[in-house]
Amino acid sequence: MTIRIACSAVLFDLDGVLIDSTPAVTRVWQSWAARHGFDPEEVVRKAHGRPSIATIREYLPNADHELENRIVERAEIADLEGVAPLPGALELLRSLPSGCWAIVTSCTRPLAKVRIATAGLPVPRHLLTADDITHGKPHPEPYLKGAEMLGVSPQHCIVIEDVPAGIGSGKAAGARVIAVRTTATDEDLRGAGADWIVDGCGSISVERGVGRDVIVLVVDDKLGR
Question: Could you confirm whether 188 is annotated as catalytic?
């Protein structure tokens, strides 16, 4: 079902929405889990979409969290094999006015910049990372601050996410959320409150000639609402 969605700004998650970094993320967190004696599959699942330090705090409550986080960050920056733009991501970003979109990611700023460059994405004018927030996804703070960066009310933003934690953050901030089915199941995406589900950024285009302050996204919605 094709629908048209009017908004003032678009807030993108990075990993799993604009770029495919899943193999690298999986390798790093599996190695970390094995080193500490945890179930690698469970750790990878919980790490998706959240700041790495949140996962570290959950599994190692008595550790030096900042030190462990730096170790994970260095490993992720070093492992860029397979990092690439997801289908349709470049086209969608290039079709949006530069001042009306932002990347809101749970990566640290150094890691986000490395992955954006490796994937060949346009350099975002507005980038919010784990270094800019106190509370990570699913808390609303990331997307509240993302909307604030653009000078737009969250209610007038569309968030594009791939995991329940990110969807929950966008919804809690008051935004509408398009979920892409690159990482989680449709059941999990619906359960987190996604307003629409699409295959990926290739299922989203921008309608031209609508107005200076209005963006209209044309979306191939899999929920059929």
Answer: no
